[in-house]
Design a protein that fits this description.
heterodimer, A: 104 residues, mainly beta, 13-stranded parallel β-sheet, 13 strands, B: 205 residues, alpha/beta, 3 domains, 15-stranded parallel β-sheet
């Protein structure tokens, strides 16, 4: 069970910081920070800088993404922003616009 | 798809939360919460801001107004500083509420009518027991009380004083032995001090 779930239809405007897993099915606008995993599910929209241990994106993210471990841009995911992570995968069918920095 | 959202125990939101569906808050929100569905606020949750939802179930801490369009229940252990507004409001014993409570949209006439007979019945009940035993019991109690009180104080004081002197007299002999031990006096002195102070107060009073 995820620590924090932003459900479909829910939107958060402001900073969301956590030390547990965060799953976004809805909207987050502002800043999203956790020490654990971040999942932007298909249908989820994040207009914020995102940072976490691992960040997986199947929805839309506009903002810089920083991960201490890895970033996975999954099929159907859209990311506009810079990525800073030691590992970064872009799945077939994903769209990405931005810079990548893998020097951690 | 009434999505269920959860703000977990280790999560802090600084900003507003709004939207459709239900929301469970176990963490901390510094901002207003407005949803169309139900809101459950856990025991350790803290919200600084207003909460609006259909059915609110509050067990945590809220600094802000609560508005339940259907119902509002403040659970035991909850701490709410703010106004409560809902057609149905429940506040459990053990909950702390500081603010105005308003039940909107319900006819208030039904409850006052029901309460009036209760109010008249209470004085009757209260008067009846007072009439029955009070006069009988009072005289009995008074002499009983009157008789013993005068003697006890002097008697009590006298033995106490004697006891004091006895203690004082009896302890000095032990004191030399204790003095040799050097560590003995501290416990003896406070013990005496406490008794002596209490007795002095009684004598003075």
């Amino acid at each position: 069970m995820a620590g924090t779930v932003v459900g479909e239809g829910l939107s958060i405007e402001g900073d969301l910081s956590s030390d547990e897993e965060v799953v976004v099915h809805g909207n987050v606008r502002g800043k999203l920070t956790t020490t654990d995993q971040v999942s932007v599910a298909s249908g989820g929209v994040v207009q914020a800088d995102v940072s976490g241990a691992t960040v997986s994106i199947a929805g839309q993210v506009t903002g810089d993404v920083t991960a201490t471990e890895r970033v996975d841009l999954q099929t159907g995911g859209r990311l506009v922003g810079d990525v800073k992570a030691a590992r970064f995968t872009i799945a077939d069918g994903a769209s990405f616009k931005g810079n990548v920095d893998m020097e951690m | 798809m009434a999505a269920v959202s959860l703000i977990g125990r280790g999560t802090v939101v600084r900003g507003n939360v709004r939207g459709d569906g239900s929301l469970e808050i176990q963490g901390r929100v510094e901002g207003d919460v407005t949803v169309t569905g139900d809101v459950v606020l856990g025991e350790e949750a803290v919200v600084r801001g207003s909460i609006t939802g259909a059915q609110l179930n509050i067990a945590g801490t809220v600094q802000g107004d609560l508005r339940g369009t259907e119902s509002l229940l403040v659970e035991r252990g909850a701490r709410v500083v703010g106004d409560l507004t809902s057609p149905r409001i429940g506040v459990a014993p053990g909950a702390l509420v500081r603010g105005t409570v308003r039940t909107d949209g319900e006819a208030p006439l039904a409850t006052p009518v029901a309460r009036r007979p209760g109010l008249t019945a209470q004085p009757l009940r209260a008067a009846a027991p007072a009439v029955r035993p009070a006069p009988v019991a009072a005289p009995k109690l008074e002499p009983v009380k009157a008789a013993p009180p005068p003697p006890p104080p002097p008697k009590v004081d006298a033995p106490l004083e004697e006891a004091d002197s006895e203690e004082m007299e009896s302890e000095p002999p032990s004191a030399p032995a204790a003095a040799a031990a050097a560590k003995a006096p501290p416990p003896v002195v406070p013990a005496l001090g406490k008794h002596a102070k209490a007795k002095k107060k009684r004598r003075d009073g």
